[in-house]
Design goal:
By secondary structure, this protein is of the alpha/beta class. It has two domains: about 5-140 and about 300-365, 3-Layer(aba) Sandwich (D-Maltodextrin-Binding Protein, domain 2); about 145-295 and about 370-415, D-Maltodextrin-Binding Protein, domain 2. The chain has helices spanning about 5-10, 10-15, 35-50, 65-80, 90-95, 105-110, 115, 120-125, 150-155, 165-175, 190-205, 205-215, 215-220, 225-235, 250-255, 270-275, 315-325, 325-335, 350-365, 380-395, 400-415; strands spanning about 25-30, 55-60, 85-90, 125-130, 130, 135, 140, 145-150, 180, 260-265, 285-290, 295-300, 300-305, 340, 370. It has a five-stranded mixed β-sheet, sandwiched between helices. The chain has a four-stranded mixed β-sheet with strand order 14-7-12-15. α3 crosses α16 (about 270-275). It starts with a helix and ends with a helix.
């Protein structure tokens, strides 16, 4: 179904999202940052804009990953309630840009030098037909594990597991010690986020690229993919029985409290540790997923700017400028857990995990190992991402045998193209 068709279908929802007119000196922001750490990070931007005499009209929509946000956005646009900006990811940006409803930020980007400081891998999504349409807020990467220090001490885990076998050994020890080995939320996007890392750990980065970015069918249905699904099925055995439907931040809280050994999650999880006043090295550890050091599998939250009336453009321009401001990029990402979308922001204010994230990004950007996350909408368009979700979640929940999953993935992706 095309975006235009979905927009028409959204008419039925539009009445629920009728908003008062947006004043010239305010910005209306649609986003899904509703957890404690996320809300604290967003307040940094609100406060900065207040200093510019720009007020903030919040339109928060829960449901991480943005699916509910996109549904609500379609209803708003259909009803003529065009927001100033929308938090958006990857191919969704390109989809909306193709409809001709996004603002042209090229003049502003040129004056402020965005091309020189934003990695090319991000520019691929922040631009459409060579024109900037979005302001990147951050770079998140998904190939992390977050480890409770107290739980690790209890089982004698003193360093990052180097490979899948060492990871399984640590999880076995946690299980034997009466801990929850893997803090997990049974939602498709969380399971797919885990599988992004499992594929690389099992087969390497080139395999990941060939399978998920190039969609090479022989790779999708290979023995290597079967092995990755077998590892995913084994990982599922370490989740507690109540994991199904759990939100990601509640899984993070299990690690924060020391009830679970670890969580495999993007670095937005660190925002929850930060909000709980926990410190890396003292209360928790941040490790790259075993076998993925040197690789950064990313998503980037971007504020997509919609075409608005002339009376609202000055406030919109202030929002775009504030988003790419180096000081904001530092202060926001310190709280959010991510790293700046600009490569020229110093790591001075960041904790040990943030410093590692910044160093890892620079290394991956220079080596060509900065690749988009399929699970997070930066690998393929939504139809293929959803086909990926469907197969992965069936394996994780025991509804599809791991040995049959590679063939199923190949078939599902072929049907989604």
């Amino acid at each position: 179904m095309t975006l235009r068709t979905r927009l028409i279908a959204g008419v039925a929802l539009a009445a629920a999202f009728v908003m008062p007119a947006v004043a010239a000196d305010e910005v209306q922001m649609v986003h899904w940052w509703t957890s404690g750490g996320e809300a604290a990070a967003l307040n940094v931007l609100k406060e900065n804009l207040a200093k510019e005499n720009v007020s903030w009209k919040d339109v928060p929509i829960a449901g991480g990953g943005g699916t509910q946000a996109m549904t609500s956005l379609r209803a708003m646009v259909t009803a003529g309630n065009v927001p100033t900006a929308v938090q958006m990811l990857g191919f969704d940006i390109q989809d909306w840009a193709a409809q001709g409803v996004l603002a042209d930020l090229n003049d502003q980007a040129g004056k402020e030098g965005w091309d020189k400081v934003v990695p090319a891998a991000l520019q691929k999504f922040a631009k459409y037909d060579g024109k900037w349409v979005a302001a990147p807020v951050n770079v998140h990467s998904v190939n992390w594990i977050w480890v409770s220090k107290s739980a690790a001490d209890k089982i004698g885990l003193k360093a990052a597991p180097a490979n899948m076998d060492e990871l399984f050994a640590a999880l076995d020890k946690a299980k034997a010690a009466g801990l929850v080995p893997l803090a997990m939320g049974g939602q498709p996007w969380q399971e797919a986020t885990l599988f992004d890392s499992v594929v690389i750990a099992t087969n390497g980065l080139d395999f990941y690229k060939k399978a998920f970015l190039d969609l090479d069918d022989a790779t999708l249905k290979s023995a290597g993919m079967t092995k990755a699904f077998q590892n995913l099925a084994k990982m599922s055995s370490y989740a507690d029985p109540a994991y199904s439907g759990r939100d990601w931040n509640l899984a993070t809280a299990m690690v924060v409290k020391g009830d679970a050994l670890l969580q495999v999650m993007g670095d937005w999880a660190k925002g929850e540790f930060h909000a709980a006043n926990k410190e890396p090295g003292k209360d928790f550890e941040c490790y790259r997923f075993p076998g993925t050091q040197g690789d950064v599998i990313f998503n980037s939250d971007m504020f997509v700017m919609f075409k608005v009336g002339a009376d609202r453009r000055a406030a919109q321009a202030k929002l775009a400028s504030a988003t790419l401001d180096p000081a904001f990029q530092s202060s926001f990402n310190v709280v959010k857990g991510s790293v700046p979308a600009r490569t020229d922001v110093p790591d001075t204010a960041f904790d040990a995990c943030g410093k590692k994230g910044i160093a890892d990004l620079k290394e991956a950007n220079s080596k060509g190992t900065l690749l988009g996350s399929l699970a997070q909408g930066y690998g393929q368009p939504a139809a293929i991402k959803n086909a990926y979700y469907d197969v992965v979640t069936k394996v994780f929940h025991g509804q599809l045998k791991a040995d049959d999953a590679a063939a199923a993935l190949s078939t599902a992706i072929a049907a989604a193209k």
